[in-house]
From TrEMBL:
GO cellular component: chloroplast; membrane
Protein name in the entry: Light-harvesting protein
PANTHER family: CHLOROPHYLL A/B BINDING PROTEIN
GO biological process per UniProt: photosynthesis, light harvesting
Gene Ontology MF: a single term: chlorophyll binding
Major localisation: plastid
Keywords: Chlorophyll, Chloroplast, Chromophore, Photosynthesis, Plastid
Localization per record: Plastid, Chloroplast
Amino acid sequence: MMMTFVQPCRLFTGRWNPLIKVRSNSCCVATNLYFLRASASLPQKSKAIPFLDRPPALDGSMVGDVGFDPLNISSYLDLRWLRESELKHCRIAMLAVVGWFVQEVFHLPNEIYSASDPTEAFWKTLATGPMGQIVLWTSFFEIISTPAVIQMLQGSGREPGYFGFDPLGLGKNPQLYKRFQLSELKNGRLAMIAIGGLIHQSFLTHMGAIQQLQQHKWFP
């Protein structure tokens, strides 16, 4: 841009004109500022889905935020409540995946717990009562955790999903704490996908995951 203004002056006068050079520099600065402002005003792209715009609420301030919200739910619901819900589902899914495999090799001493197929075991416990106990205790823990969530939404400063449960003291180091938070989210998200796949595969094959691997049965 500077050469566009300065070079014609030299051609006609045979020397550089400082005034035109200053004006050309000013023009360059103004042009750069214009393009910077224009680029800043454009919506940023999501890291998770590069062809979609990043939702405004997902500004990267939360651990594990990669801009994944294709339905734009974060524009209608509080992001702290959404993270609380995500963490609960992550933790339940991780426990479910472990339980899915343990149930195939270990059974409680009663006929109703003897099924090796996880889906068959589910229907047995649902009909005989143990599943009702699980629902009862799950509902109880959900009720007693509700006040903490309400206080968080009212501005108490509590982090989503935090209940002070850290028996190994892993959260004493702030840097390691952030790392463990990210690890929990990544493993939990993977577990949510995994348990969905395990359930559907069991419905199709009527086998547990270990039995499917042993018999190399991937399809019905």
